[in-house]
Amino acid sequence: MTAQHGLSAVLCLLLLAELASAQNARLSPAELDTARREAAFRPRGLIYNNDGDDVFAAVERVSPEALLAQRTTGIEGTQVGAIAYSTTRSFAGWTHETRACAPFLVTDGAFAHNMTGELIAQGTDPLRVIVDYCHDQGLDAFWSMRVNDTHDARNELMRPQWKLDRPHLLMGTAEKAQRYGGWTAVDYGQPEVRDLAFEVIADVMRRYDVEGVELDFYRHPVLFRAHAEGGVATDENREQMTDLLRRIRAVADEVAAQRGRPLLVSARVPDSLDYAAAIGLDLRAVLEERLLDILIPSGYVQFAPWRETVALCHQNGVACYPCLSNPTNSDRPARALRGAIETYRARAVNAWYAGADGLQIFNIFKQSHPVWNELGDPGALVGLDKRYFVTFLGPRMASPYLGGGQSYVTIPTLSPHAPVTIEPGARHEEPIEVGEEITAGGTLDPEVLLSVQFAQLPPAPDVTVSLNDRRLVAPDVDGGWLRYRVPAELVLMGDNAVRIECADDAEAAIVWRDACLDVRYPRPAQ
Question: CA 36, CA 143: separation in Å to the nearest integer?
């Protein structure tokens, strides 16, 4: 036997061994189902949602390390268990090496430092860089696709050629936009749109070693023409979207069976079955068919109590990761209070209390932000200062994408965007949920402050404030706020009733704007 023939024989044996190994690694349908459930419910703590704008940072030299330095390096060792990395600039414009359409390689204007093209020339791309980092650090990597992102409606540099060549697939024009959503939104009622979405998603599943894909229906939640023009999506629209998800699920399972481990499908969605149905997403059917493994409910508005959404997910074998989005209140002081770490802690505590399997953090990108080391473990939140509100987000963002959107909100809405007017002789009550025993069984002794805000501070005799049926007295006055010191034992785990009464003889109605409960713990001696 010649050396060449010997080498060929060795290569053949190696190839046969590799094929046999791959065949052995294939998962049966029953094994895949079990593996999917186990992977979906594996503790991750936090999913870090990165919108991918780090690819546009000015760096001295383009490299994987330069990209990672912007928003990623330093996340290792925190409570983050997964990164959901978006490469979507707009539909049909992605900053990874797509094969179904051209990648987003623009290097003009705000995108002058776009690293995508150079990284591809180096044999990688932004998504591969993140995937490699995650695997080096023992984290799960998810690719996040914004299902109908329309940032290109305001910035023509973001508008991909695919859209320019197919104006008939868009909801509107620059001269005549539809009623809801950016005019560059694509119509998922068109087969060509659904096919491209499927091809791009399937391509990522097949060519990138991701643990899963995330379908972000919240950026932006306009999917079908009937809804965009002022109505609601049709039954046919909902079936079209469900069928697309079936196709995606089939590819995920096909790839998972071949590689011998699950490929998860998650979705970031409005946490209202009715609102989701109105925009074209039959969430109930999607969950019952278990087309998803992880549901990421909520965004700029929360529609329903976390416990209801968690229960719906769990009864269908789907993990639930409530999304803690950044507050978008147009009232700047209210936004600042809600953007504080104390408020994020309270939001996290309430989500964990409702049975969440983990949390997603949206629109926070600094690796040094304290959320990464605090919110992903309920135990780590014990003894940390918190600020609980009647509502953290308010209803404002429920309507910009759907007519009458605020009517779908089923949780309290008291906030500067939705104040309550209390007439003389009347009373009104709102709950503040506290998802923990603030004294930790008597081992902690926090200071508690209930603050209520009014449009105009009423005279003292005209207003009575109570917490859990106990009348509060001697408040501090701080602008339009009354601040009451509250005994810690008065605060319940669960809903706490804040009641405002307007005196019978008050000269005017009281306009109640906001309320929060601050829980502050003594600092340990240095």
Answer: 17
